[in-house]
Amino acid sequence: MSAKFNLKNFALLAAVSVACVAVPGVLIKFNVIDGYTAQIFTLAGINAIMAISVNIICGMTGQLSLGQAGFMAIGAYACIWFAQVAQLPLPVAVVAAGCLAAIFGFLIGFPTLKLSGDYLAIVTLGFGEILRVIFVNLKSVTGGPNGKRFTTALAAQADLAWFVIVGTLVVVVILLQNFLRSSYGRAILAVREDEIAANSNGISVFRYKMTGFVIAAFVAGIAGALYAPFIGFVKPDLASFNRSVDYLIYVVLGGMGSITGSILAAFTLTYLQEFLRFLQEYRLLFYPVILILVMLFRPQGLLGMRELSFVGIWKKITSRRKA
Amino acid sequence: MARKEDASKGCRMSDVLLAANGISIVFGGLRAVSSFTFELKRGELVGLIGPNGAGKTTVFNMLSGVYTPTEGEICYTDAKGKRYDAHRMKPFQLSKAGVARTFQNIRLFGNLTVEDNVLIAMHQQRGINPLDAVFRTPRYYRDEERLRSRTRELLAIFHIDGKSLELAKNLPYGEQRKLEIVRALASDPNLLLLDEPAAGMNPQETHELMELIAFIREKFNLTILLIEHDMKLVMGICERLVVLDYGRIIAQGVPAEIKANPAVIKAYLGEEAMLDA
Hints:
The structure holds two protein chains of two kinds. Chain A is mainly alpha-helical. Chain A has one domain. Helix content of chain A is 75%, strand content 1%. Chain A has 15 helices and two strands. The two termini of chain A are 24 Å apart. By secondary structure, chain B is α/β, with parallel strands linked by helices. In chain B, α4 packs parallel to α7 and α6 packs across α7. The longest helix of chain B is centred in the middle third of the chain and has 20 residues. Chains A and B meet through α8, α9 and α10 of A and α3, α4, α5 and α6 of B.
């Protein structure tokens, strides 16, 4: 594989990225896609960012974290605080909220990532639940159990929300892929594959576990910071264990280690939950059955560790035409 | 105290690459390696042999930083003459300083490609910072191309460059062993520790591998310490042998001496064989 810059591949990826955001966005603007469906897909966009966050730490770095929703909640409350109290413009508030979540990631990771095994899972599980309790009781900042209102243009305009959130998703995916396909990304994958071998080949296992964990926390913070202005309301349940497990399910279903798999699973499952509403309460029965079937017939997840490659698909189509 | 002075004296001599001075390790009540004292001169090819369970791999794990010795010290001097207290260092720090190793039970990054396995070991030689990677600057492309062309060169030496995009776990056994050596070479080491490089290979493959080891030693100017189970095999290639039994050195010397050493014969064949002879 060559590492040279390829203009044709770059143009193809840019076109696909723009189309993914622009085409549904325009359809939403002209009401071809109704507001209700638009809202589901935009929420799926946030879920996809969360799934990517879980995938970085569980799929790429190989450390089980059960508290990603905690970082998301930090991002959500921080975004409201930065925008309302500190009076920062929303984009700045979103990035600042992501950074705050990353700082929390560093603080949680520092004592726990030195240990191996399931300690990180135990600590992060506790972390999310502790946060939830703190958010319930810290009434002056979070509004307590009633939650906090945050009215913005994103909650009112479906097309704007789609552009902002899915746009962010695309930017996150591109920058993250660039990072993961560099020497740093390979170091993170090496830690997942074999800690002893990575260590003996010059990779500081602790440092790269920390890198993976902090990036995951940052991405979760960004997802939370977009969730707050989009839904317009945040309550402490956002940090709960159940939420963390929901995001983990997307990753397991899409394939541990596959970013595109996570996105695909997040969109499919978010839509499925709404689509199955006609089954009324039986819906809660069907959803797990689908999960069980996927795990039975495709235990590695939909895409396994592979990525959906637009360049690869394009090459297949063009080579078939020539033949 | 006297011991400590000995160790620093050993290190000060410029031709000594690695000096272990009285290193011991205790696991619970078991003294796996006891007072292991040993010097490795620059450019040597030394074999570490001994029966099953003698503590050979444990010695390797101490020399490469995986285990910290309970007692004693290890002193390593790199190509520029800089001294390191190797017994206080972690494996990744030693790798940076120029100590590379392979594992007895192959430890490749199985779900990654052959090429990626080698590129990972070159992480310390990267010429980029994280921002170059995230924003794909021209420097990123230049650096990546440099590392990849070096990877191709190394893989070509071991004739596995045709498989650079296959997953490491899908390689045949012999090639997995070779890939592990390539990965160790990629970190640009001074000292190469090979833990049973020929384990599980047939005599023909073993012979080829031994020739390759002699070749890379010349080409990359390496000092090599290798563990081997089979005595006949190391006799041909090693200049000096160290024999370990029950965690202690029972003999050291050139292969011909070792072959005739009664203690070695006893360790390998038992007391009765001695009497028969």
